[in-house]
Each structure stands twice: as C-alpha cells, then as structure tokens.
Task: structure prediction
Amino acid sequence: MTNLNYCLTLLTLGLLLNLQTQAQHFQTVWSNNPYMPMSIIVDSAFLDSIYLQLNDEIAVFDTNASGNKICVGVIVIESTFAPDTNYVITASADDPTTPEQDGFIDGHEIIYRFWDTSYAEEVTLIKKNYKPGFDINYQSLGTAVAALEGFSAMIWTGTADSNWHNTANWNMNSIIPDSTIRVLIPAWCTVSPVIYNADADCKTLKIEQGSCLKTSGSAQLQVYE
Ligand SMILES: [Ca+2]
Result:
C-alpha cells in the first residue's frame, strides 16, 4: 500500500468513526409524518446543573399495553442548550389505523429521557416542571411547556430520617435506587443512610469524604458495577 492510499484509508476510517459517534441514539416508533402531534416546548434542560451540550438528546416516552416504554418524540441539541430558543419536541399520537401502538395515548404521563453524549449513557432521573395554563400529560394537538432537570445519580439528602428505603430521603421524591441507578452520598448531608430490614441495590456508589453508609442486621447493599 502506498503512503497516499494508507492516508486515504485512515481518513475514510476516521470519517466513518466520526459519523458513527454522531448517530442519533433515540429513535421514535413512528416515521414520516406524526399523527395529531403534540408540541412539547423545552424551556430549559439541565444535567447535573449544567445545560445539555452539543449532540445530547431529549426524548419523550409513553408506556404501551405490555408495560414497555416507547419513544414517541426526540430532539437533538445543536450547540449548547440555550434558554428561550424554543426547543420543540414533536410527539406523535397513536395512529388508530395501524395495529401497533406507534405514538402516545391521550392522558398518559409524559416520560422524559436524556442522552448524555459525553458518557454515552441514558439519563432517566429527570424532574419536570410544567408552565401553568398548558397541558401536563399527553394530548393530541396539545402543547406543554417544560423545564427539565436531569441527574446522572440519585443523591441522598437524609431530609426525613436515616432510612435508605424511605423515598423522602432522596432527591427524586417518588423512588429509591435500584440496580440501574447510580448513587451519591454527598459530603453535605448531615444524616447518613442506614440500610436495615431489607436489602438494597444500586448501579454504582460514591460516598464523599466525611459521609458514611451503614448496614444493620443482615441487610446488604449490592452494587452492580
Ligand atoms: Ca397505531
């Protein structure tokens, strides 16, 4: 192989790799034109207190009859997220003339996920805040205006007590960690978590200096990564 050919091969490989890394992560269950679409306007979108970055994605999901999450709309962030630029996710309703659920069902909860391109990881821990006067659930031809705050890890707050299994002690109010969720015990918490009565799971565990985690009796914590 000549030097020139070698260089061209490397260049082609580089371009292919580059194209591959730029491929969109979330794919909607519908294609072509959306059916009776809803506009979800995203006012702000943070991940760990920083605006979403170039090539991050925001997707909206619905839950189908089998309990699976289906992607019904997505946008890719171009450049860094700039507030008040009206990022609009176009979500398709389910087309009644096709047998499968290929869009959202009116009245269902809008479920958000981020694609964090820097870590190539989906973010499912997302708090949403809706602007009053607009829709707050899926609605054909409706409009929602949302401020989104995502977290790469669940953060222990210890607001209520020391019980790991109490949802009130975590920054995401209605859930406790499971095997898919990263956990952070921050230095600033004044009450450290104790795992008792039942075993606990998490994906990864980070305990900042000055904090601790205790188990009591036979209860155990399983860290999956
Ligand atoms: Ca359908």
